[in-house]
Hints:
It is a multi-pass membrane protein. Its main location: membrane. This protein folds into 2 domains: about 60-240, Neurotransmitter-gated ion-channel ligand-binding domain (Acetylcholine Binding Protein, Chain: A, Distorted Sandwich); about 240-335 and about 395-444, Neurotransmitter-gated ion-channel transmembrane domain (Methane Monooxygenase Hydroxylase, Chain G, domain 1, Up-down Bundle). It is about 40% helix and about 25% strand. It contains 8 helices and 12 strands.
Amino acid sequence: MFCRYFSFFSLYLFLPTQKSSLGHGSSLHSKGTPLLPGSENLTMGYNKYLRPYFGGEPVQIAMSLDIASISSISESDMDYTATISLQQRWTDPRLVFHGNQSFTLDSRLVELLWVPDTYIVESKRSFLHDVTVGNRLIRLFSNGTVLYALRITTTIACNMDLSKYPMDTQTCRLQLESWGYSENDVTFTWLRGNDSVHGLEKLRLSQYMVEHYHTLVSKSRRETGSYSRLILQFELRRNVLYFILETYVPSTLLVILSWVSFWITLDSVPARTCIGVTTVLSMTTLMIGSRTSLSKTNCFIKAIDVYLGICFSFIFGALVEYAVAHYSSSQKSAAKVQEEGAANELSEEMEEVNINNILNNSITSYKQKSSFSSIEISSDNVNCSDLTTKSHEKIKCVLRNKMHKIIGYFTIQNPGNVDHYSKLLFPFFFMVVNVFYWAYYLYF
């Protein structure tokens, strides 16, 4: 019996119209045609171009969402792609009929009914699924309630702050609004508050984890009026484990590898140079690779860039440390050779000369030379006031003493201590920097 009534109802909808007007729809019945009980309310005076309660109170549209999937989240384009099932419910008194039954109609009959002009705010591109037919559903209830469901895939913009990447938490939105009907004609509400959204808690994403979500109701004001807007706001927290294994651990190991050179003697130039240059080049390659995946977001100074910069600084510092230590060692060796050569020359002269007076004169002249050289090198033994020179020469002497004192502060007396202190200071400062880095980006 139900199928028979449904066939009669469908026939009514597709019969040619006799007359139509703006306020009153076409009369779809003719004499002698059997009627579905209550179907006169479905066909008489119905106009799909006019909303329910036209000229009166606004239509209440209650919505619910089923999130089927979030297929991709793009940091470079700052958007995400989601497949959703959107259900809209409203009451149309023109569609009231007797009985307690509900009818699920063919989706192609949507063209004969009034439906809200809902659109997705900030949507870049969207499409309605149409395999095997358009994925739409229309269900009529006896009290005039209409259920209209759609299956949509949409790409929506999401403003992201990547300063803490990859330890970031992004907040994205899905906003629904009427395009042409202001709040005087249509108002949107969530069907059951936060319970109106299903599927988010079951999603499994490759890089993210859905932490929290909640629904909001707001208004948007445009040039054409004030419109009701529904907002679904959800937080996506990135899974940092992948980046720890891919970037953080290799960069830390490269820093530790650069410290191996501190245990190699300063004379092993090829070994220490090879370790320093290799670690610097490897770190550079790692930094370039980390930026390749986010080529369009270089305007952000990301957390991973800061860490890679820290690691590169320590590796480069280890290479510079060897250059300083080796240079100081070579300078000290050259000075030692020069002193030994002068002593050998003096001993040869003393062996050739047998006369005591000449020997004493030679020794006296050697002492005078050494005393003058000590005056030039050491600033502690120079007393410019004792020199019988002119005033400008005394000023030069004072300035020379000051310069020697300043240079003495930066002079490395024992180059071997450079490696000794570096073995302790480099790991200590690297641990301190790591503590501050992880504390800031994880808790602030």
